[in-house]
Amino acid sequence: MTSAGRATTPLLFAEHVHKRYGGVHALRDVHLDVAQSEIHALVGENGAGKSTMINILAGAVRRDEGRVTFDGRVVDFASPAESQAAGIAVIHQELATLPTMSVAENVCMGRMPTKGWRIDRPAMYSTTRELLHVVGLDVEPDARMSDLSLSHQQLVEIAKALGAGARLLVMDEPTASLTEHEALHLHSLARQLRDRGTAILFVSHRLSEVFAISDRITVFRDGAHVATLSTAVTTPEQIVGLMVGRAMSLEAMVSVPDPDAAVVLEVRGLTRRNPSGPSLEQVNLAVRRGEIVGLAGLVGAGRSELARAIFGEDSYDTGEILLEGSRVRFRSPADALRAGVAMVPEDRTTLALFLEQPVRANMSMAVLPRLRTRGFVSRRAERVLANDYVGRLRVTTPDIETPVRALSGGNQQKTVLARWLATKPKVLILDEPTHGVDVGAKAEIHELIRGLAREGMAILFISSELPEILALSARIIVMREGRIAATLAHDEANERLVMLHATGSAAKP
After folding, report:
1. I need a labelling partner for 73 at 20 to 30 A (CA). Which of 10, 221, 351, 509 fits?
2. Per CATH, which fold does 10-244 belong to?
3. C-alpha span between 399 and 309 (Å, rounded)
4. Inter-residue contact 216 to 3 (CB < 8 Å)
5. Do domains 10-244 and 261-340+427-509 have the same CATH topology?
6. With a threshold of 0.90, does the pTM exceed it?
7. Quick one: which of 138, 108, 137 has its CA closest to 122?
8. pLDDT reported for residue 388
9. What SS3 class is residue 331?
10. What is the residue-wise DSSP string for 10-41?
């Protein structure tokens, strides 16, 4: 076993692991090893078996077959308590904190220091301060957990795990809900813990961070182990190919439209004063036919607010919007759709999907008037439309009558895209279209977006992932505090320059 120069003694070694749920073979002859002082990434599409493997290590479920060795002894955890006692801690995406209790009580839960029959609070606070210092968190031990940000609560959970003597930290999508700055702090902490001797199993959909911090990468596909590779000698394209079972390109040539292509969407001097949230001040932008324009910026910069104002979801005070040269003012999203503007919102589960409804209904919902025959919606026309988009967008679903709730995040997002593409828009606004989807689905959505641009669609694209913005956008508009901070051509943009404009530091040396 090689590990990019790290220790080669396996702390965790799993071999020939099987797990079945009824007729579903969730894990099939899986192998996984994690060395001491190593950050080992576990990647795979949704349904690949990552969560099942994590649950076995956590003691939440038991394997059916196979052997797991931890710290030199065979283990078969019957409960999470057994796993934790052995030295394994799982930091789930949904944190398991006690919000009404203090930071110190959360850190020391289950091992409170006592003096006689009472809790020794000075000792508890002293221990907590030491552990908070290790994870780089500057909060008081008596602070209430519910008053902390999500990233700080996550650090408290890590401090608790270290205090309990964890030798293996399993981090399950730890940066999914963090800002870029918070994610970078977590990456730095993970490296520090590795260098102190802690093993880390890092599960993430974000290949950029997997390659930034891991020593080795294990790929699962369809419940089976596909490969374990040293991060230093592989590429994102190779990993995605292993995950999806076919070669895929993550970096394609950005489609730069003809400079003489017609401007489809133009925003002039748009201003929206919003006392309760981000405002917009004198925003100007244009999107040409066949162009992908990326909107970058920090959380609260006004990107989503701008998208909602264009789409008629929010009002604005002054300024104007032009569609193909004609001034428009949408009073509602329905107005925008009729004019040829569609928008995929940031939160698909609450703003876009009807989870209990079938794929067919979710895809056809925006075009039902077009599918009417003699006053009634034609089920046959609905099925034809849904089957067409299932094929075109490669939606993985048992059939078009399957409830959307049963689909993976990536296939749910493709279902949302299908609904708005069915309206045949001139302008497509995409707000975080790959948030929470696995890498294979992300690559497919990128291919789809590029294809739509090649067909002539004007696309306004919002993403918090800078590599994604840079990979797709012909031009990048950087927003800060509700204003346009910079407009960058693809060939001059890079992550550092975008962040300098997003933080207002571009003029600084």
Report:
1. 221
2. Rossmann fold (3.40.50)
3. 36
4. yes
5. yes
6. no
7. 108
8. 92
9. coil
10. EEEEEEEEEEEETTEEEEEEEEEEEETT-EEE
Spatial separation of the C-alpha atoms in residues 14 and 359, rounded to whole Å: 38
| 215: DSSP letter | S
**CATH-assigned architecture of domain 261-340+427-509:** 3-Layer(aba) Sandwich (3.40)
**Cα–Cα distance between 315 and 172 in angstroms, integer?**
39
In one-letter notation, the amino acid at residue 455 is: E
pLDDT at 3: 38
Q: What are phi and psi of 390, to 5 degrees?
A: -60, -40
CA atoms within 13 A on the CB side of 502: 24
The β-bridge partners of 172 are 203
Mean pLDDT for each consecutive 10-residue tract of the chain (509 residues)?
Answer: 51 95 87 94 86 94 95 94 93 83 90 85 91 90 90 90 92 82 88 93 88 95 93 89 70 66 94 82 94 90 92 93 95 92 78 82 86 82 91 88 86 88 93 80 85 92 88 93 92 87 70
What contacts 509, CB < 8 A, 6 or more positions away? Answer: none
Determine the Cα–Cα distance for residues 135 and 186; give it in Å rounded to an integer: 9
d(C-alpha 337, C-alpha 193), whole Å:
51
Read off the pLDDT of residues 102-113 as tens digits, 9 standing for 90 and up.
999 999 988 888
Q: How far apart are CA 65 and CA 53, in angstroms?
A: 13
